[in-house]
Design a protein that fits this description.
- By secondary structure, the protein is mainly alpha-helical.
- The protein has 16 helices and no strands.
């Protein structure tokens, strides 16, 4: 915690931390406000709600698959701080489109014909935005931090991200949709202002030519990164984890509404619990590893996550046996039998997930060459997004054929076993390779 406190007082970390925190806050304020409004105020059918949730997730993920190669090249070939400022300026325009969609939906103006397409267009654009911001967020850390600070910095970025998700989720669930429409623009403007304070991070590689052929560039990028066995297994483990995450994200809003009979405020509370849990897991794994970047706890963490998913499934089935007849307020939900167990299961899933994935991101940025860090993260994003697209399509197909959301939880639990096997393979390769630190560039 001393290292973390130290970093939060340094300009080489604090402006980036605040910028990504505001980015995550705004992203989730918009996404949660949009999904909750559509699920609770537009549709009234679990299958349609699940399909919309799947389409929204698919559109947000798609840019990562097609544009990550370009974003990784740019991040390694140009000043990372300059790219951050361009990205944050674009966010202001994207949020203006999202604001228009939210206001039209709130007013009931051409909801299906124009408002929802605008909402989804802004969501897709935010996916593009995140595609270009994601590699820089992690790749800039080894350039600004000392090697022994990278894991703490990564943990802080992850914890800050999920605290921001927590804050954005709370607001989206509790404030009127018209306030959310104004809030997303204001937050985008503040995020741009904080990005102006991020210190310069010039390219570490020699001048290269950008490959604008996105398919060829994507294939080459993944191939070049995957020849390193440690990077290969880290990317595979992270990607499968996010495939599980994609399935859970799609399942969650319809499950909360139709199985647990939770109002949108309670659904927001669930997301809050989930975000707090990931933040706890992100920080606690750093203490457990004592600053060492290692995958040794990855298999146990994701097995624990799978067990909590199974427990959540069992409690949901018990809940259905005594299901409320109308949507519960927060107070009514907390007073309902088994509510505390539901919340503990969600917290357990999230803590275990944070403990699994945070060391793996630190692993990527410390086991690759410093001048290839952004491209390694970009290659990871390509494979991640492919896995998430497959997970989204599976969840959408299950919803389309009428498989109940609660039963789909078992798919997520089973996927955790595969993720544990991948984590075990990664740790075995790590032990075979031994410590291979790359010196960080400090400023």
């Amino acid at each position: 915690m001393t290292t973390s406190t130290h970093l939060l007082r340094r300009r080489r970390f604090l402006p980036l931390f605040c910028t990504q925190l505001l980015n995550a806050f705004n992203d989730n304020l918009y996404k949660t406000a949009m999904v909750l409004f559509v699920v609770y105020s537009v549709y009234n059918d679990e299958s349609a709600e699940g399909l919309f949730s799947g389409v929204a997730s698919f559109l947000f993920i798609l840019p990562f698959f097609f544009l990550s190669a370009l974003s990784g090249q740019l991040a390694d070939m140009r000043d990372k701080a300059s790219i951050i400022r361009i990205i944050k300026a674009a966010e202001i325009g994207i949020m203006c489109v999202g604001c228009a969609g939210l206001v039209m939906a709130w007013k009931g103006i051409a909801v299906n014909e124009l408002a929802i397409p605008l909402l989804l267009a802004a969501l897709f654009a935010m996916g593009v935005h995140s595609t270009f911001f994601g590699p820089i967020k992690y790749a800039i850390l080894p350039q600004h931090l000392r090697r022994e600070e990278v894991l703490a910095g990564t943990g802080l970025v992850e914890a800050g991200t999920y605290i921001a998700i927590l804050s954005g989720t709370i607001l989206a669930g509790w404030i009127p949709v018209e306030w959310a429409a104004v809030g997303i623009i204001l937050t985008a403007v503040i995020g741009y202002l904080t990005s102006l304070q991020v210190p310069s991070a010039p390219p570490l590689a020699k001048e290269e030519k950008l490959d604008w052929h996105i398919v060829r560039a994507s294939i080459d990028l993944v191939r070049n990164c995957m020849h390193d066995r440690q990077i290969f297994w880290a990317i595979m483990a992270i990607s499968f984890f996010w495939a599980i995450g994609a399935v859970l994200i799609i399942q969650f809003p319809p499950l909360a509404k139709n199985t647990l009979m939770a109002s949108k405020e309670v659904a927001s509370l669930f997301l809050v619990i989930f975000s707090v849990g990931i933040a706890i897991g992100s920080v606690s794994i750093n203490a457990l590893l004592k600053g060492q970047v290692s995958a040794r706890h990855a298999p146990a963490s994701v097995i624990m996550m799978g067990l909590f998913v199974v427990a959540f499934y069992v409690v949901c089935r018990m809940w259905q046996a005594d299901q409320p007849t109308e949507l519960l307020t927060v107070g009514q939900f907390i007073a309902w039998p088994m509510a505390s167990v539901i919340l503990l299961c969600l917290l357990g899933i999230a803590i275990a997930g944070g403990m699994f994935v945070v060391p793996l991101y630190a692993f990527l940025t410390t086991r690759c060459a410093p001048d290839q860090a952004a491209r390694t993260i970009a290659a990871n994003n390509i494979v991640n997004s492919g896995a998430m697209v497959i997970g989204s399509l599976i969840a959408m197909a299950l919803s389309a054929i009428g498989v109940a959301m609660v039963e789909q939880l078992l798919l997520s639990a089973g996927m955790c076993l595969v993720s544990a096997w991948l984590g075990k393979r990664l740790h075995r390769v790590e032990l075979e390779a031994g410590p291979q630190p790359h010196p960080a560039v400090t400023q």
